[in-house]
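To: structure desk
From: M.T.
Subject: fold request, one chain
Message: Could you run this one when you get a chance? Sequence is below, nothing fancy, just the single chain.
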Amino acid sequence: MMNILLIGLGGACGAITRYLLTMALSPLGQSFPKGTLIWGTLLVNALGCFLAGIAMSLKMKHPEMNPLWLNGIMFGFLGALTTFSTFTSDNFKLFAENQNGLLFTNIAMNLVTCFSLLAVGYYFTNYLIQKS
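Reply: Done. Structure tokens follow.
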């Protein structure tokens, strides 16, 4: 039962964080002509991947950590913060508007940024753990 509660609490916090970050960055996309690059989706997915890298490293280096908290963070907070469905919807909108340049830019930026930040979070946390 505690597992479900922590996932739910993490999910609520992740969803609110996602909403606030997305709304804060919405105006940035307006600088592109006839379409928008979706900065909010990129930010939440990139942040989520960076934090997932940290959590993965901590879980691997400290298997004694309470799995309830990790579930609350990974499945709850990060699950609600990040969004593949919005990423796909954003890309379909660009496709439907024949904004192919923005479409491929958005796909490439999301994949490269998210993969890179997950790796940075993971290896940076490993480095900090080894130094302590």
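Reply (cont.): The chain has a mean pLDDT of 89. Let me know if you need anything else for the meeting.
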